[in-house]
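Short-chain dehydrogenase/reductase 3 structure dump, as promised
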Amino acid sequence: MSVHTIVEICILLYNILSAYIECLINIFRNVPKKDIRDHVVVITGAGHGLGAEIAKLFAKLGARLALIDINKTNNERIVEEIKDITGSKHVFGYCCDITNEEAVAQVVQQIQRDLGDVDILINNAGIVQCLPFESLSTKNIKKTFEVNTFAHFYLIGHYLPKMVSRGVGHIVAISSIAGLIGTAHLVDYCASKFAIIGLMEALEMELRQNEINDGIKLTTICPLAMTTGMFKKPRSRFNWIFPVIDAKYVAKETVNAILRNQTLITVPKNALYFYGLGKIVPLKAKLAMQQFFSYGVDAHQ
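structure tokens r here:
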């Protein structure tokens, strides 16, 4: 082994150790939040549930909002609600089927005209079938991926180049604990959410490898099942460990993660430790853990 290679290995070990030390320090210190006043924030699936709650929090922080949802009535109701709460005039609603590339291109152009350059993109919209694998049709599977995965690519494809040219921007993906841990009755959903984890991690690596300005931030959020009605039959043997969580709480944790430029979080945070444990134990042990905790969802009828 050459002296040059030995030096490179030493540098690598130093960088790895420094990264661990930085992570430990960040656990105990209060990382300052960035100011997003007057920043333009795009949120998909904003007409209900988590998307609506995130929008309300960002509005209170002074952000200018572009709220996208396929349900025009719900979306307009949230827009008016936010205007009433905050008095902001910079909240716009857009009815758009984000699985349609042409429709996405049109709404992106309209947002540019209404609000200007986008600072934060939050890909939140999602659907779930919650069916056993043998009950899934090809149509079901395609729809799940179109909404939960492909739409992320469409919107990132429009906004990332401009963020790179400006040297600043933030892309946020709402994945799920089902994007980290496989769950029965959610095969297509898990696959689509696992894909988002891969998308965001690979994109992070590509941006850094290409030495893109560090002003581009990526954040992935992985919540447990929420009380939004999306999962009709959630179950948890130990609700104090794996609760069915309120969307307002997830929204608060999501906004905090964005303001602190965190890369990946689970909500609640302790779920990340169980995910890590599940990756290092044998399959039989993992199955035994899943059976013991009995956390998951029953199939929709």
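The two ends are 63 Å apart (CA to CA).
lmk if u need the other ones
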